[in-house]
Amino acid sequence: MVEGVSETAESVPSTGPVEVSPKAPAKVLRMPACRPDGSDGDAVTAVLRKIQSVRKRPLFAFVSKFVVDDTLEEVHSWKRELRDVGKNGLDILIDSPGGSLTSCYMIARLLARWTDSWEALIPTTAASGATLISLGSSKIVMSELAQLGPIDPQVISKRREKFFAAERQSPLEAFQAVQYLRELSLGSLDACMRFLLDPDRGGVAPHRALESANRFGVELMKPIFEKVDPYDLGAFALDSNLALSYCDRIASPANTAKQTQRAVKTRDLVERYPAHEFAIDIAEARALGFEVSEPSVELDDLFDELRKQLVDVEAYIGLVSDVQEKSA
In sequence order, which residues have a C-beta less than 8 Å from that of residue 85 and are 6 or more positions away? Predict the structure, then answer.
């Protein structure tokens, strides 16, 4: 026996240094971006992982206090991951009051490219532009506190004299104001006619009463209508038509394979409600034609937990991993 060599060892000819295949690097998990940096993003992530576990589907979080072009860029940066996981459908948790209408529209269009079917989870708010995004979902799961909102574009005020430097106006408010003035004009004309035709007050002849009532109505309403700028009304009408066009394209895409909120009365969403702040709860959403349901008891409890964690979070956007990130 050769000293130092085991009897059971096989003799291997020396061929120089042995090349060892390097171990494949562990896949680095990308975490959602949370702002501000001091926010407890880990606590948010923990709750979202529980939601993902209950739903047993990939989960993308879209939390934003105000949607702008940078928000659109941030969503777009997840395109590869969302294309990979979105083939068989996914959940998108939305918590946002909206923002730039065009940015929200583009986000909805991107999601439509990356998946044919996704469900919206709404623990609290998906209003205005966020409601527009939700039109691209196949179903919405809303808590009792959750609310959608009218898709009413907010535009910079064109008034020469402004109380704030960047006052915003709503086409809904402008159209409601004009409707109120019209009703007030007709009401004034009707009241004046009744007064003049009343036999107890002399009974003026009908044609004389109409002439007098018409002059009264014109003189009463003229100073008010002179304050209305037709240019502004035209601009508001264009903004309203833009919102309606966006809604129709998201809710009813030409591709029939896309599962979206096709039954929603989009014109009602844009024009029906009296104010931008109108809260559309789950019952109202059903009346509008949304495919919507309440969460399970377990999911509803997690929605309650998540709301507490999101109080100080300005934005949390990204695909939620179902495993803890491993350090290199």
Answer: 58, 319
The strand pairing partners of 99, in sequence order, are: 67
Q: Cβ(298)–Cβ(48) under 8 Å?
A: no
In the structure encoding, which two tokens stand for residue 113, read together?
A: 């490219």
> Which class for 101: exposed (0-12), middle (13-18), buried (19 or more C-beta within 10 A)?
buried
CA angle 317, 318, 320 (to 5 degrees): 125
Half-sphere CA count of 148, side-chain side, radius 13 A: 32
Identify whether the C-beta of residue 317 lies closer than 8 Å to the C-beta of residue 81. Answer: no
Per-residue confidence in pLDDT tens, the chain, 328 aa: 444 444 444 444 555 554 555 555 545 578 898 999 877 889 999 999 999 999 999 999 999 999 999 999 999 999 999 999 998 889 999 999 999 999 999 999 999 999 999 999 999 999 999 999 999 999 999 999 999 999 977 555 555 554 434 445 565 555 555 666 666 677 777 777 777 777 776 677 777 777 777 777 667 666 656 565 665 655 566 778 889 999 999 999 999 999 999 999 999 999 888 888 899 999 999 999 999 999 999 999 999 999 999 999 999 999 998 765 444 3
Which CATH superfamily is 33-152+251-320 part of? 2-enoyl-CoA Hydratase; Chain A, domain 1 (3.90.226.10)
Q: Where along the chain do the CATH 3.90.226.10 domains lie?
A: 33-152+251-320
135 sits in the region (left: phi over 0; alpha: psi -120 to 50; else beta) called: alpha
